[in-house]
Amino acid sequence: MSTKLYDGLRLTAHAPDLFELTRMISKRMREVFRELAVPIIAKNVARVVDDTEIRGREMGGHLHDYLVYRARKLWVDEQTGLDHRPAFHDPLRFSIVFGEVDDDHGTRRLAYPFAGNRAYTDALMGLEADGRPIFVDYHYQNQTDQPEEIRDEEWKRRRDDWDRLLNADDRGADGTFAHLPGWQLPDSIDGVFDAVLLGYDDIDLNAHCVVEDRMRRALKQAVAPDLNLDEATGINRVLARNRRIERAVEHHLSTADGAAMPRPAPLPGTQDLDIAISELPPVYEPPAGDVARIIAIYRKQQLAGN
């Protein structure tokens, strides 16, 4: 049977009791959640601010006439639209389960995190008690040879430990960790905006959404319609065409003309996101001269076969 427990961890002798450990994990994972969530909020606010089509899109409900709710709806629709199991795709999800194994070698406390972002696991590995690590790697998989730095006896012990947890002599054990105690980050896809924006000081979204990225997106949107692009067949041709557009935009931005281009207006502060869509400043539009220069660069690359 295939076993892939890439994120398995073992608690060290320095780890506190489960109650205190859960408290530490809860505090740190909420911090990581906020660090990951703020750029998502900034990205979706920028999508509304910078896109005429999104501003005018019918989303249903009067709440979506306001910036924060329209940005939130974009995010929720994007995630839940990927699959009928939205939690499976939630990039901000985190949960962890704990188990204990006793044998002649002693007692080992194990943990297995389920994370939508590697930052959660890295934060777990960074937790310390009295300056010493609480978690150490205890992964196991039987798809390839064991790592060279792990002794045969240690590797077999990992295999046996995880097998005992997954196939415990318990009616609740069914080859999964569902029967084990654990902790789950309560914040969800739907709650990202509320969890971050409520109860916090003003957050500078511009620090998490680079203005040059907003310019690149606006330039690509402005350039494409004027290129009279024929319908490309095959994913490779489409990707090659998109890369050529991106290279043309990057080349222009690296020139003196590109550096002199006007920038989009800053995003509003998080305490000002309740502004109505109709009250937002006009959508940023790149100057026609800059768009024309990028089109010329694109066509030159195309002729050169780049």
In short:
This protein is of the alpha+beta class and 306 residues long.
Describe this structure in words.
It is a single chain. The relative contact order is 0.16. Helix 1 packs across helix 3, helix 1 runs antiparallel to helix 5 and helix 9 packs across helix 11. This protein has 11 helices and 9 strands. The protein has 306 residues and is of the alpha+beta class. The strands form 3 sheets. The chain has a 5-stranded antiparallel beta sheet, sandwiched between helices.
Count of individual beta strands: 9
Shape: elongated
Largest sheet, in brief, is: 5 strands, antiparallel
Oligomer: single chain
Beta-strand fraction estimate: 5-15%
Helix and strand sequence: EEHHHHEEHEEEEHEHHHHH
Q: Radius of gyration from the CA trace?
A: 25 Å
Report the average pLDDT across residues.
87
What is the overall number of helices? 11
Global structural class: alpha+beta
Distance N terminus to C terminus?
48 Å
The proportion of residues forming helix, as a percent range, comes to 40-55%
Please list the strands of the largest sheet in the order they lie side by side: 7-2-4-3-9
Q: Ranges with pLDDT <50 over ≥5 residues?
A: none
Helix and strand topology:
Layout: E1 4-5, E2 9-11, H1 18-50, H2 52-56, H3 67-80, H4 86-89, E3 94-103, E4 106-115, H5 118-125, E5 128-129, E6 132-133, E7 135-137, E8 140-141, H6 152-166, E9 182-184, H7 192-197, H8 211-223, H9 235-253, H10 256-259, H11 288-304
Antiparallel strand pairs: 1-8, 2-4, 2-7, 3-4, 3-9, 5-6
